[in-house]
């Protein structure tokens, strides 16, 4: 019997309801095609009708398979003008707000259906590790999570877990905003003493950007150098390029295919805002970013184990990929990955958006000279650099 799709706790946004309706519709069709028992079909149909009623109550109109809710409806080529409705807009490609204070992260937690990292969780991390919590936890730079308590349960019961994070290499050098997840992941690796996999999504950047395959791979190599400089444990860290690893690892590709089979085009459109004019590479890519969440994608590290818990530290704009992953995981027999979400490193011009490799004037790159940094910060509008005070990279005394 197929699993009835369930919403994440607190995740009752129009988008999540839309995705659940699409999944439940697929299940009803499968039951009918398989000539399941009438009671089972009737139960599935009732669930579908209930989801559609919830959707209408939330959106104010009937569910339409080809019309995902407009907010948040990400677009691969940039989102709508968030300032039009005075609302924050966050997706894997666009971060925008009309507020000079920046993104309202409390509202984002509600909209995405995640959980706030509170003092109780921070204290539990301190007890489990015996280490003072990282300044990014104490200062709220990492502010949201999914199932971190389950990871701590596993750790306290001597069960293994591993870390997974990544980088989409769209420029020759990384900027300060890109460093945030890696600095924190380095601390997590040190205090928990666990393996780490780092995915370089050069294939993604080839699909989304005006790059050749050689350029995308070249950026991945250069960005990997910046990541290595963070000081990860060389014996417990695996950095890989999708363009290389996909062709060399049957186990990884098998998981990609499993994920692809369990996500419909309607679901992909609802989650990521894909349109009929998007290339099919974009539509299939989310399964590639999802695959490292499962331990048997790396047989050279975990052999054929499928039950090793995964913890993903990332900026919250990447969460749509892993909401999809968490929905698929139990249907293909794997544990759901847990997540720790960071805030966005604000652009030099102010907190209305984040630092971007596409706008050199918004960012301080790791290859910038002292003169370039001085010029950029002199041009900074009031509220730009002043908004960076919780992100100092060196550990200040008594912080």
TrEMBL record:
Annotated GO MF terms: ATP binding; tryptophan-tRNA ligase activity
WHEP-TRS domain residues: 13-69
Gene Ontology BP terms: tryptophanyl-tRNA aminoacylation
EC numbers on record: 6.1.1.2
Segments for region (Disordered): 64-87, 373-399
Keywords, comma-separated and alphabetical: Aminoacyl-tRNA synthetase, ATP-binding, Ligase, Nucleotide-binding, Phosphoprotein, Protein biosynthesis
One GO term describing the cellular component: cytoplasm
Gene3D superfamilies: HUPs, S15/NS1, RNA-binding, Tyrosyl-Transfer RNA Synthetase
PANTHER family for the chain: TRYPTOPHAN--TRNA LIGASE, CYTOPLASMIC, TRYPTOPHANYL-TRNA SYNTHETASE
Assigned protein family: Belongs to the class-I aminoacyl-tRNA synthetase family.
Protein name: Tryptophan--tRNA ligase, cytoplasmic
Species in which this protein is naturally found: Pteropus vampyrus (Large flying fox)
Gene, per the UniProt record: WARS
